[in-house]
Amino acid sequence: MEVILSRKEVKSRMSGHKPHSKGTKASVHRIRKMRPDPERIIEVQHNASSVMRHIISSLPLQSVQDFEKQLQAILNVLPAYAWYLAPAGALTFVNTRTEDYFGLPNDHPLRLGVDIGAPWDNWAPLLHPDDREETRKIRSHALHTGEGGESIYRALGAHGDYRWFTSRTEPLRSSDGTILWWAGVTVDIHELKCTEQALRESEAKFRDYAETASDWFWEIGPDYKFTVLTENAFRSDPAARIGTKCWDHALDLETEPDKWRIVWAALDSREPFRDFVY
């Protein structure tokens, strides 16, 4: 991809340039990749909450037994992991998709919705050990307040692997306000969490390397403004350049426009470049 800029467009990229010594060599260049949306998990949780409220509103007033059968039927056709807890918090029923994920046998009580008087946290062994205590706190708070809640955790699947999920739980009440069950919808967010973790690890490795290298390193965002500069950058105050573009300080935009066109073309097409001297 080639981007051709007129002399007027070259000047338009020069806003606020300051004198600086020639021959500065950017030995390593890195464009910040677009991060996973930090609000994406919240959005997924809210979507799960909307599904849960729709389920609750769609159930007609009837006997508790008929209500439970209708609830099970609805949960089983949902294209999501869904389940409900007993009033005291014990996992009592999981829908077909959840059954398949955990690999439950056909006669397992959770397939049938049978309350066997299990402990309130009988679901904890299904979660990653590092996520159990926090999830217990969230569920315990919900049980004490009677309010719905959200949690993020890893759950062990039938194939022996943990995956990340976000869950939303809402109380289902009788006409007098008594909690009959806690209904929940769970959404798989494993790919999103893995992407976030990989990005954090990549940035940590880059920063570790940048701190020990003799050359200096920089990082720019999608708007081409500096977001990271190591302390030895430009042999001046790097903090003052954060939020500015590298060509804001260049002296050769007008004298050597061709090389800047090449660099801008690389940036605009998200392609790497090297050995650029300005």
Key structural traits:
278 residues; alpha+beta; Beta-Lactamase; 5-stranded antiparallel β-sheet; two-stranded antiparallel sheet; disordered N terminus
Spatially, the strands of the biggest sheet line up as: 3-2-6-5-4
What's the N-to-C terminus distance? 22 Å
Could you say how many structural domains there are in total? Answer: 2
Spell the H/E element sequence.
Answer: HEHHEEHHHEEEHEEHE
Indicate the overall shape: elongated
According to CATH, the fold-level topology of the largest domain is Beta-Lactamase
Structural class: alpha+beta
Q: What is the class of the largest domain in the CATH system?
A: Alpha Beta
- Please report the total strand number as a whole number: 9
The CATH homologous superfamily of the largest domain = PAS domain
Q: Kindly state the percentage of residues in helix.
A: 25-40%
Contiguous runs where pLDDT drops below 50 for at least 5 residues = 1-36
Model description:
By secondary structure, the chain is of the alpha+beta class. 37% of the residues lie in helices and 18% in strands. It folds into two domains: 85 residues, no CATH class; 151 residues, PAS domain (Beta-Lactamase). The strands form three sheets. Strands 3-2-6-5-4 form a five-stranded antiparallel β-sheet, with helices on both faces. β2 and β3 form a beta hairpin.
